[in-house]
Records
---
Amino acid sequence: IMVLKEEAEKLRKSLEELKLDHEAYHLLYSKVFHPGGLPTHLLSEVVNLMEEYVNRYLRLFGVDVKMKFKLNVSGNQQRIDILTYSGGYQRRIETFSGGEQTLMGLAVRLSIGRLLAEVYSTRQRPQFLIIDEGFGPLDRDLRERVVDALKKLYEAGEYSQIVVISHHEDVKNHPAFRTIIRISKDADGRSHVTIL
């Protein structure tokens, strides 16, 4: 009887270990190795970080807009919905002015650039930013806010150099820019560079 009791105790311990193993394998299967597991979790982390960066940039631009990124998973399909808010109310993106939409797009592009730099830069992310005619339909006030925001990014050390290409005189002459490079063409069509 003693031997049977010892054998029963060994079997009970073995059964408990097998149950723990089963739970661990089930967890790995259901949370990591199924189609929506780890990739979805990682995507969710990136989406949350993206939302944080976008809203940080929008605050820097001084606009009353907040964006929410919502990851929807259905089977093997994943979709990111973007919700926009102003004054605490949800609004369709089409109801915002062209300037506000441009600022939202710029905030998204800056955020994507930052995320890509963080993911793919093994040592240090690139410290420069180039914006080529990124002011689109912005009015003078919004252009001023964007330039001020870019100056804050520079001062905060997010970028050590920011290059802005623009035809807007108020942008070109903004005191935030230390160096202005003007390119002009002569009568023969040759370009000339002047550094101010």
Note: The mean pLDDT is 86.
---
Amino acid sequence: KNWDGSNERWEAALKAGLEAEAQLTADGYGLYGSSAKQWEKMFLIDNAFCPEAITVQLCGIGITSQAINNSWEKSIRLLSLGGTGGGVAAPKEMIDLFPLADGRRPTAANGYNDFT
């Protein structure tokens, strides 16, 4: 709580959130299931109504080359998400861009050996 200022924006945000929740409930949306077992599987249901999902994007399962639902996308997707699990190797240049564990840039001056 902002003790030195107005709470109007927080009250407006709460009101908007409650109105959105009421509208979604009226439209048939809500929490998925009532047990941990059901919650574990809530995002694994393909092409079935999930009351917790407002927007979904189906992943490709075939060998077509249309947009994002294609065989290449399926080939890099994890097995647990219906892909073939091939993945994509990260280029060395991309790996070298990540900071060291202490946050410093990966340079020879900072002890980074880019050959290991």
Note: The longest helix spans residues 8-26.
